[in-house]
Amino acid sequence: MSQARKAMASLSNSLQLKHGPSLLCPHSSSFTRSRPSPCIRFRSFTRNFVVSSSFSNDNREFVIVGGGNAAGYAARTFVEHGMADGRLCIVSKEAYAPYERPALTKGYLFPIDKKPARLPGFHTCVGSGGERQTPEWYKEKGIEMIYEDPVTSIDTEKQTLTTNSGKLLKYGSLIIATGCTASRFPNQIGGSLPGVHYIRDVADADSLVSSLEKAHKVVIVGGGYIGMEVAAAAVGWKLDTSIVFPADQLLKRLFTPSLAQRYEELYKENGVKFLKDASIKNLEAGSVGRVAAVKLVDGSTVEADTVVIGIGAKPAVTPFEAVGLNSTVGGIQVDGLFRTSIPGIFAVGDVAAFPLKMYDRMARVEHVDHARRSAQHCVKALLSAQTHTYDYLPYFYSRVFEYEGSRRKVWWQFFGDNVGETVEIGNFDPKIATFWIDSGKLKGVLLESGSAEEFKILPELARNQPSINKTKLQKASSVEEALEIAKASL
User: Fold this and answer.
1) Sheet architecture: strand order including 395-400
2) CA distance 451 to 374
3) d(CA 326, CA 466)
4) Residue 27: is its pLDDT beyond 90?
5) CA within 20 to 30 Å of 365's CA: 84, 357, 376, 398, which one?
């Protein structure tokens, strides 16, 4: 082992596990480790690997695997620190430069007459108000991009990656930003029939749009984010739309029963049909081999010429299992600086199981906000003297019916933890707020159709977790009054 590797190995620390509750995901563990600044050692360590003709990547000091939101925001942070040009390589399975993935189940699915989103309009980092990082931007910044060639194996001793095409890539510091893959129906029950769609990338969304252009009856399987957003887009196409899911309410991981009922009523007003508490037996093909119906366990069938499966996602950990996985929340286990147990390897975004500091537990968050922030925090820790641990405030949102001609555009935001008792204020039209209170403290808050000023209050409330008078809050006559009561408790 070289002296440089010995120096790096000394940074690895043993993990101490302790159990705690979890946010919108299964219970897991958190761990602590000492936090020495790794930046100088990383730089001297990685520059030992620059010269070799046997590797396919010229830029070998820093390598990012994955081409989604996290990769794009990480690239921007490398540029801001002057460490991208000639040093950074990004390896992606996609044909496009990193983009803001939420657009795929929102604006991208709008019909042509409703001005759908298209690239290059939503390349990172426009989602947070940053510069649009087109393919040309990466070239100008000296960042090496390898497209449509996913990594299939890693050798952590030799610090090499092998891609699907057989390329051998060298890395000094590696950031794993592979995100998630869509959970699929087995082929045996029709999960791969023509007309059956999953959405994780632009190619998936393009395929779905092609189906929607010819569709008459659409069935969406799943009552979560994907189901609600795709159904809202299908309404814009004026299609016969049904949502089928096994739970008794929409978005059960977050919405209260009463809030879910409000949304269900809104969708029904837009013509969407619901089949709740329904289990699917299989998807049936028609005479030409395309999906024609969804057959339920109770024997009933729902006709469909297009089916969209939105039943969740799985962290894309293959081929990185050897880096160290979390067996409870899934994903690659990291510390508060996004370091894995192997020196020089990091994981960010959806694929990372990280310590959720403010709630003292491990979590894996599938959300664009976390993808952005975790990537930035990781790169800053790698390139500078930053040693403070990631302190994330959970944030979730959705936007639906945001096209021209919609009866009502909908946008909700949630911050914090959905634990304890709830207080709901408002009648949904024009707005509604839900407050989660545990042991007298405000833990989380969701606001539907709020103003920009009102939305700004939410993270402050959730971060500070003030003591709040539940009875006084329940007596509020409006959302505005309830937010003022909550704000006064800070």
Assistant:
1) 395-400, 410-416, 441-448, 432-438, 421-426
2) 27
3) 32
4) no
5) 84
Residues 6+ apart with CB under 8 A from 351: 66, 176, 177, 178, 179, 180, 315, 316, 317, 331, 332, 364
Please give the helix or strand (H or E) that residue 64 lies within, else none.
strand 62-65
CA distances from 382 to 181, 284, 339 (A): 27, 51, 9
The owner of tokens 């899934």 is: 330
Could you give the CA distance from residue 110 to residue 174 in angstroms, rounded to a whole number?
Answer: 37
Of residues 434 and 49, more confidently modeled: 434
Span 316-348, pLDDT tens digits: 999 999 999 999 999 999 999 999 999 999 999
Residues listed for the chain:
490
| C-alpha–C-alpha distance, residues 358 and 85, integer Å | 36
The per-residue pLDDT for 25 is: 38
Q: What is the pTM of this model?
A: 0.88
Instruction: Report yes or no: 334 and 369 within 8 Å, Cβ to Cβ.
Output: no
Looking at residue 53, its pLDDT comes to 57
Q: What angle do CA 362, 368, 369 make, to 5 degrees?
A: 70
In the chain, what is the greatest distance between 2 CA atoms, to the nearest angstrom?
Answer: 72
User: In whole angstroms, what is the distance from residue 258 CA to residue 348 CA?
Assistant: 35
- Distance between CA atoms of residues 200 and 197, nearest Å: 10
Mean pLDDT over residues 266-286, rounded?
97
Q: Measuring CA to CA, which residue among 62, 127, 73, 118 is closest to residue 98?
A: 73
- Continuous H helices in 333-410: 368-383
User: 196-254, pLDDT tens digit by residue?
Assistant: 999 999 999 999 999 999 999 999 999 999 999 999 999 999 999 999 999 999 999 99
Helices in 24-140 by DSSP H: which ranges? 39-46, 69-80, 135-140
The continuous run of DSSP H or E covering 235 comes out as helix 225-236
The enclosing H or E element of 434 equals strand 432-438
